[in-house]
Structure to design on (102 residues):
């Protein structure tokens, strides 16, 4: 996973831990920090890690992946708070157990 993420996240910028002091000690998180985002670009790593997980699961044969062009086609998808620009669906592969319906 880490090797794959190094590829999918190669263009995401690193940033220092804002809660790590110069002496290596943790700095307490202030309550007001939870309601602000000073650098939204740093969250691009979330998409890179999700893509890495998808690649690993598919490469290991544990899932198949499908890109959905029109997310409105997914009846189970709730109305997002942001515009969806891409939807990836992973369907797990698992052996069927005797007596279970598909």
């Amino acid at each position: 996973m880490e090797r794959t993420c190094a590829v999918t996240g190669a263009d995401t910028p690193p940033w220092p831990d804002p809660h790590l002091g110069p002496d290596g000690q943790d700095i307490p998180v202030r309550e007001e920090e939870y309601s602000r985002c000073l650098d939204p670009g740093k969250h691009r790593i979330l998409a890179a890690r999700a893509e890495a997980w998808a690649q690993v699961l598919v490469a290991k044969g544990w899932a198949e992946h499908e890109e959905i062009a029109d997310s409105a086609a997914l009846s189970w998808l709730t109305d997002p708070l942001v515009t969806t620009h891409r939807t990836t669906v992973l369907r797990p592969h698992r052996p069927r157990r005797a007596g279970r319906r598909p």
In short: Helices lie at 2-8, 44-59.
